[in-house]
Amino acid sequence: MKKAVCILSGGMDSTLCSYIAKASGYEIIAIHFNYGQRTQERETKAFRDICDDLDISNKYEIDLDFFKQIGASALVDKNIEVPTIGLTDGVPVTYVPFRNGIFLSIAGAIAEKEGAKSIFIGVVQEDSSGYPDCTNKFIEQMQEAINQGTKDDTNIVLKTPLIDLQKSQIVQEAIKLNVPLELTWSCYQNNTKACGVCDSCRLRLNGFKQANIADKIEYEDGIV
Length: 224
Known about the structure:
Layout lengths: L2 E5 L4 H12 L3 E8 L5 H15 L4 E5 L2 H5 L28 H16 L3 E3 L15 H13 L8 E3 L7 H10 L22 H13 L13
Parallel strand pairs: 1-2, 1-4, 2-3, 4-5
């Protein structure tokens, strides 16, 4: 069976990517990164729950503590507040410097080791928070770099099935594939009830609203 590495944060986008990979006939190798993010504990639970639902046995949980040392992001530096006023122009403080580049580099190493020819990553270009490492151009150049830096017979393809979708379309596609979105976690700052006001929660809630579908996760009082 053909193999695919899926970078699985536990959020909606990466989860849908994993279900797309499964529906496409891939044997999934799941990777989850703990990098000192505020919701690390809750995201890890989501990752494990989703792996159980997909019956994934080959999985990696990788610790990248150096992200906290680098800082420069509200996701890893608790001295920087997570913004709750809504999306603004430019790159927000929740951007983690070159995070996807580092994730993809590690995923490339694992793909080469495991004999996988594809890496699925749930980047979204149009409906994201303005992150520079979620664009088609970035993905194309990372694919070239990975293949330049691995053996000639490795030939890895980076697959981004959601990159041009809006969040409402992601919700709709997830429903079609019976993805248990209630197992996923999107909130940037809470580990129990989602805050409902950070950028990621706002994008998620807006996607469910536009898709006319109820979000089953629990939010803080007064949200939804």
